[in-house]
Amino acid sequence: MRLSALFLGAIPMLQQGLMGAVLCTVLAISQKIQKRRIVNTLHQLQSICRIVDENGHITDIEVNGTLKNIRDFAEIHFSEDVDQKKSFEIMMCAFIDRLYKESNKSAEGTWKVVESMEPSVSKKRKSNDEREKIGKVNYHKQLIGFLSGAGGTGKSHVIKTACQYAQKLCKALGVKFDKRTIVVTAPTGAAAVSINGETTAGAFAFKRKVKDEQEEFKITYLVIVDEVSFAFVEDMELLNEKIKQIFDNPWEPFGGVPIVFSGDFAQLSPVGGRPLYKSEHSIVWKEYLNAFMELRTNHRFDKDVNWGAMLGRFRDVGLSTKEVAIINTRVVGNLRFHVRGTRREYCNMKRKAQDIIYADVGEAHVEDQCNKRRDPLLKLYYGRPLYINHNEDVAGCVANGAICEFRGVKLKPAVSQKDFETIIIDGYHVNCVSITQVDSLLVNMLDGCKGGNKETIIELSPKVIYASAKFPVPFTGPITKNSMRTRRRISFEQFPVNCANARTVHKLQGRSIHHLVVSAWDYTDNRVYVCLSLCTTMKGLFLREPLNPSKTKEE
Ligand SMILES: Nc1ncnc2c1ncn2[C@@H]1O[C@H](COP(=O)(O)OP(=O)(O)OP(=O)(O)O)[C@@H](O)[C@H]1O
Q: In this protein, which residues make up the domain named DNA helicase Pif1-like DEAD-box helicase (predicted)?
């Protein structure tokens, strides 16, 4: 395998333009599915429990005089958003309840669950009798909540603020706080990175036997599963089982630990599996939920409220022809600087360099055992956007889908620049080095755990990849998209990165992006809505292709 280090300083425009580029794949939103999802969600509404002190006062928590109470803290972080404040309060009450119970602090603390109440943020109204019944049933119940709301309403913001508050509270109480105190997870690596969490499967030992975890999780007072629209039904059932094993409590759902699922079923579903809202026979989702928290104010579009309103309509009913026309004013066409990263350009580039690259697997389409594309030949220059294609260290934000920039390579001790081969690609003389000569790849992480303006440079080591490669045959003449290919199973070494000219919407869900270039539309599932709702303003949106109004229209 070869790794070609191409140091071209003069591509800032390419880099900037393509950093936000999204390869949006699929079709018009299925309004029926979307509505069904939301209705199903609302059916889960039951009640919430909250904590009051022995005198009946709610929430004032002053520890050693150093900590603001929950409401003051919420006031600072959520300003006018009452839904966020309420959701935060519910989560923190559940956290504190368990913290006091588990850390035997009940003697010095005055906290206990004494009241059940109906959710204040429910859309679905129930009769008084029903409310009363549910209130009684859920008296003293652990929190099993669903924090929902459209993309940008601040679900992740509430989670992050809850973690901040919990950290301060633990510090003030002299209680240990680490990544197990509130276990923040998401079903995919990319989603986990955006909330500084870890994958649900990794945290709860989905693929291994529960062993040492029991000790580690002794200080867990709240579990969070973000971007739950990505979760498979089967995985949530497994999560229930694993948490029961870890906490050695098979009698209560999720081992008796408070748990909050967060997400929006109007966004993307898991790839190749059943999403939770289709879980007719799974009690984990249908029966266990006892709190529904819905956020209704969108903050992502604070700078362009009209854009936010249009997207809200898109989520609920679809787009009118007029609205599609407005969005299509953002079409900028096939900009030259985009073309460079496309398959066609890739083929052209390869054709020009055919003399050198022919015998190389660099010509092959390579997919690993999980059907993920792997770049057998990395074309790199200083600042080249890359994405990590493997969950290396999710807690450290080196997760599948995380974006980074190429900074350099660390050569093996006996190798020097003299050993580089020079090849010609697209008219450039390019230094080319084999992976066997390179010790590690230096990249600057751009996603997640970045501290301030400082660069976060990490070293990536090569990995052995088992893959299926489609080689062009015969190895003569120019190679094009339509060249005949033969499939072979191969293994090779490569760094766990791909070139990131564009990213799929799946990898971006949950982020706020100021400048977004949409490379191609894919109208399946809810991808168009999710893609558009990443962009904070309409001015920041650039389209290479117009939207098709017949595929996004109102019902
Ligand atoms: N109360 C608030 N005041 C100001 N800004 C806020 C507030 N809540 C959220 N935001 C900002 O709004 C943006 C979107 O928030 P966030 O990413 O938490 O939304 P989300 O509901 O998790 O979205 P998604 O469904 O796409 O994951 C972020 O930039 C966040 O900082």
A: 135-303
Q: Which residue reads 């204040």 in tokens?
A: 120
Indicate the pLDDT class of residue 1, thresholds 50, 70 and 90: very low
Q: Residue 431 pairs with which residues in a beta bridge?
A: 5, 422
* Radius of gyration of the CA atoms of the chain, in A: 26
Sign of CA dihedral 541, 544, 546, 548: negative
How sure is the predictor about 335, in pLDDT bands with cuts at 50, 70 and 90? Answer: low
**pLDDT above 90: residue 29:** no
Cα of 512 to ligand 1 centre, how many Å?
Answer: 8
For residue 169, pLDDT beyond 70: yes
Distance CA 401, CA 389 (A): 6
C-alpha distances in Å from residue 23, one per residue of 20, 33, 504, 508: 10, 23, 5, 10
Ligand 1 center to 299 CA (angstroms): 6
CATH 3.40.50.300 fits 39-295, yes or no: yes
Does an H or E element contain 408, and which? strand 403-411
Pairing of strands 259-262, 222-225: parallel
pTM score, whole prediction: 0.72
Sheet of 259-262, strand order? 198-199, 182-186, 222-225, 259-262, 144-148, 291-294
Would you state the structure tokens that stand for residue 555, as one six-digit string? 């019902």
Question: When comparing pLDDT for 17 and 368, which is higher?
Answer: 368
Give strand pairing partners of 259: 144, 223
* Most informative mutation of 82, 153, 155, 157 for ligand 1 (most atoms within 8 A of CB): 157
Distance CA 81, CA 104 (A): 34
Is the bond into 474 cis (omega within 30 degrees of 0)? Answer: yes
Domain ranges of the chain: 39-295, 305-330+505-551, 353-499
**Residue 169 vs residues 77, 180, 220, 236, 378: alpha-carbon distances, Å:** 16, 15, 14, 30, 47
Q: Which of 75, 260, 299 to mutate to test the pocket of ligand 1 (most atoms within 8 A of CB)?
A: 299
Identify the residue whose C-alpha is closest to ligand 1 atom 16.
Answer: 154
**Which residue's C-alpha comes closest to atom 13 of ligand 1?**
300
